[in-house]
Structures are given as C-alpha cells and as structure tokens.
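Reading group handout, session on sequence-to-structure problems. Before we discuss, look at one worked example. The prompt was deliberately terse, the way you'd type it at a terminal:

> structure tRNA threonylcarbamoyladenosine biosynthesis protein TsaE

The input record follows.
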Amino acid sequence: MFKYSVTSDAATQRLGAAVGQLVQPGDVLLLQGELGAGKTTFTKGLATALGIQQYVKSPTFTLIREYTSGRLPLYHMDVYRLENGGGDELGLEEYFNGAGVSVVEWPQFIEAEWPENYLQIKINKTATDNEQREFVFKPQGARYTALVAQLEQAL
Ligand SMILES: Nc1ncnc2c1ncn2[C@@H]1O[C@H](COP(=O)(O)OP(=O)(O)OP(=O)(O)O)[C@@H](O)[C@H]1O
Ligand SMILES: [Mg+2]
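And the output record:
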C-alpha cells in the first residue's frame, strides 16, 4: 500500500500522468472515491501522459469511452449507473484483457467482474472545503506491486 497526498486539481493530474508513464497493455486501474473525489481528473492526467490529445470527459452516460490516439489505448469506464447490476453484460473482460489500459470509476458496482489482479486506487477527500486529496494505492498481484514501486520511485 502506498499513500500520496495532493493539494490541487493540477497535482492530481500530475499524479495521473506519473501513472500514465508506467502503464502497460492489459493494466486495470480501479478508481474509488466519492462524487467529485477526482477520479476523472486523475484519468485526464493519465491520458495526457499517454499522448492522448482528445478532451477526456466523464463517460457517465456512455459507460465506456475508448481513446486510441496515444501510446496505448485507454478504456475509460464509469459504471456509476450500474448501481443495480448489469455489469456482466458490458463485456468488460475483453477490455481488461485488451491491448489498452482500463480505468474504471465506481468499480464497486461491478465487483463480480474484477480481474484477478488490478491496481485499486482510493481517493479520500480529507476535508470538504479544500483541494486536498489522499490517494491510497493498493496493488493486487505482482504486476501492480511492481507498478506501485516504480511510481514511488518516480514521485
Ligand atoms: N486535488 C484535487 N484533485 C482532483 N480534483 C479536485 C481537487 N481539488 C478540487 N478538485 C475538483 O473536484 C472535482 C473533481 O471532479 P472529478 O470529475 O474528477 O471527480 P470524480 O471523482 O470523477 O466524480 P464522479 O464520481 O462524479 O465521476 C473537480 O471539479 C476538480 O476541479
Ligand atoms: Mg468521474
């Protein structure tokens, strides 16, 4: 487990970019945190580091957006609307095993679909009235343990 605190929207994007430098095909990142925690903001930074020029916006209504103009494809998912199930119909396994990196917002709603290994990233709002956020990285499996070690080195 690795904890890292930031104090601005821009710093969250830089953190996402640092992760974006390290991701490999087939990586799965599960981003947890309340509404407005900064999950999409983090993903924007990650996309920038992949060289994706398009504007990354929340896929809340489409559930999945694919960006293919970067170093790796980015599969950005927001499954908030699956609060009452339906995640088994999305074909997530194909994304998770695909050539890109999958970033999932609200993964707790598709817990039955989680792959065996993943990087869980929890974002805690440490105060309601400022831009402070605590990121907690919890790797599951050797690949993600290595990724988090590289991230610690890079920061
Ligand atoms: N340190 C911070 N990191 C990220 N966002 C921050 C930070 N401080 C303030 N913000 C603001 O909080 C909001 C975060 O919005 P964002 O869409 O990234 O959240 P989210 O976790 O994706 O929410 P949702 O669950 O609705 O998808 C933005 O308005 C952003 O400017
Ligand atoms: Mg979001």
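Points for discussion. First: Residues 7 and 129 are 12 Å apart (CA to CA). Second: The pocket of magnesium ion (ligand 2) is lined by residues 39-40, 58, 78, 105 (CB under 6 Å).
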